[in-house]
User: Fold this.
Amino acid sequence: MPEIVMQVNGRRHTVDVDPETPLLWVLRDALGLVGTKFGCGGGFCGACTVHVDGAATRACTLPLARVNGRAVVTIEGLAHPVQQAWADLDVAQCGYCQAGQLMTAAALLARTPSPTDDEIAAGMHGNLCRCGTYMRIREAVRRAASLAASPGAGVAR
Amino acid sequence: MSAVVSRRTFLRTSVTATGGLLLSFGWDGPAPLGAQPATLQPNGFVRLAADGTVTIWSKNPDMGQGVKTALPMILAEEMDADWSRVQVRDAELDRAKFGGQGSGGSGSMREEWDLYRNAGAAMRELLAGAAAETWQVPRASVRTERGRVLHAASGRALEYGALVMPASRRPIPQAPVWKDPSSFTLLGTRVPGVDTDGIVHGRPLYGIDVRLPGMRYAAIARCPVFNGRVASVDDAAALRVPGVRQVVRIPGHENPTFLMPGVAVVADSTWAAFKGRDALRVQWEEGAFAAETSETIAAQCATLAATPGTTVRAVGDVESALASAARVIDVHYEAPFLAHATLEPHNCTADVRDGHCFITGPLQMQTSGARVVAAVTGLPVERVHVQATRLGGGFGRRLLSDYAAEAAVVSQAVGGPVQVVGTREDDLRHDYYRPAGARRLRVGVDAAGHITAWDCHLVNISRNAYRRGDGPPWSTETYGLVAGVSAAIGPDLELDLVPWQIPHVRLRYSEPRTGVATGAWRAPAHVANGFAVETLLDEIAQTTGRSPVDLRLELYGTTRALPAAGEDPTPYSPDRMAAVLRLAAERGGFAQRPPEGRVRGLAAHYTFGSYCAQVVELSVTPAAGTAPRRVTVHAVTCALDCGLVVNRSGLEAQAQGGIIDGLGHAFFGAITIDRGRAVEGNFDRYRLIRHREAPRAIDVHVVPSTLRPTGFGEIAVPVIAPAIANAIAAATGQRLRRTPFLRDGYTLG
Assistant:
């Protein structure tokens, strides 16, 4: 089996598993990084969202082979004002989708530092929340944008 | 063995593959002897350490409804603990410490209020008494505040932690005095969920995150047709999949809500288990329901609706009253099967060893879950140990414990720890669905517009019959069917609702037969029944030219005129019902003219001891013409009364979330049955509401109250769909009598 080399949260990993295995299961079962969640396995719900070379990506449908030589950031490695904003606004209900919501929101703010409500709705549309926390997610993205814009913005870590 | 069991701890630290520290789950052996720090633990709910740290156990699990924060808040309030020094643990199953454990029926606030207040008050009394003794002053001269005991006369103060030793020598108060609610400083405030930090940093909190040494993963093939069985298995290809270890036959249990038959593939990783399961070649005995479709079920309901049915309740003479009514409204409603679709898929971890079974997973009902595991493993229930994790959603799905039973029997066969994981397809196609059904309602109205007769024939699949429950099949299906025109006169909040303002009422029931598995779905029966009742009331108001508010107020009557409420501490109160209706109507501007192009709709409901009314403001584009028509929900005004507010943040979250859940399922939710199978397998076909489709605003208004708190995890759900349908009727003239609204050409956006 060909070895796959990737960086996860700043650490280099050499992984020796079937390269067709979705990144999600490599993270969860091989690397013990269970913060990235399994929701649907088909890229419909966004619970498994990670950053691959900075882009929000669905880990459940991404074969390991396509991560070779790339840099992955998971929720465990995220250090971004969205986390503080989510905590401030008590966004989570069951919380299961929120790792994916946070990864998507962080990527959205990287592209669009000061999004309108429509841009938030469009940017977050691919992430399902079964508990219906959408109102607070919208508010938290706005808050994270202002935290990021203010000097000395706190990093939740 | 008992020593091992009694000393087990749930949380421990271990080193992950990546070298970092991971807070993990597990059942540990005995704690090391010696160096135990001094602690004060007068009961199973709370422990005070000498450093001032307070540990509080949440006896019931949190699935997003917030009890893991709200229950400890009650205790911390009574104890006058400093909330910043409180840490919260998920309690393991322990009857001696906690009594029955489980979250359901919106019951945690209503049922655990006394326990948590008593536990906190006992702690406060121990500490205050210890301080008074230390200072040699009268007990009445000291008071407690935010983690300290104060003696005002001398200006002295002692931290709680410093009182652990003297307090531990005092007798535990058996009937401690509760604080007056006017002195509450924590309850009623906005407190973030206690797992927030773990959630935003991706720490392992959920059942699916459990990792035990030597643990295997398993996926289960189940008969695609409900009620089917395994005829034969060819597992050769499955066993050739790299990482697959073993294939296990699961015979199932006679009660299908305990354990369904299937074939489990056990592997070294979740992915290998899924691939191995896909490689199984199973011949199924499809059973008696293999030809069933949604259409055959609907036809059966229509046929039954034309029969007299079984009369469940009758007051007066409905037929005569209908015959002499000035006008009769005769309408038929339909409700589809709904899936729960918890975002955390079906999973559980079990370790059966040495005659014990250790279950760690997303159990909603620890006590009944242990009974189910005992039944399928043959172990005595005392040897089934349950540690519930945080749940990635419940919505009623996890009231059953079939996934724990699966993990237990597979672990038993393997002889080691096993985590069973389901795919989304497993979840949506093998759920215990909200039962489908129909309702025919005939209502008689007199010349002045007063309702004189109410006849309802409920034709609904029975989840009680499916679970082999005691009692008649309708006992789980009639909830809320006449609520709003009814009063509770007995201890059971749901079953003893009887109409009292309408002179002639009859409730009839017929049971359709199906192979489809059914169970409770958030606000069970209330969602479909409330939709029928609340849209029908709106239609009656419109037909008779009355205000929908006035019509409802007349039906509620007043608390003064209500028969005695029996033993229930939170009896139904028409006054509280009327107050939330008035509040929603006022704050939602129901009597005012809406902005150009918009309409308003209203509905109200009573569920599990709580009251809710909502006014929606929406627009429909195009306002006339053909499908699809887009409904934009501009605002929802939600008024509620659930007694004293424990956690305002959690309460508002449940209102918002319940509204969004109810809205999404009203527009999109339906499981289709074809050839005895559930068709929809993932979120491309089983559509859930998304960000862009949510209301633009949801305003929550709470009736101030010092009454015993009741739950709010469910009550918002049944109210939103009828409020929306009533607004759509105002906009278009079309009365929606079934969900999902998408079937009638309406979508959200």
Notes: Confidence is low (pLDDT under 50) at residues 1-24, 26-33, 485-497 of chain B. The two ends of chain B are 59 Å apart (CA to CA). Chain B touches chain A through 72 residues (CB under 8 Å). The first strand of chain B starts at residue 11 and ends at 15.
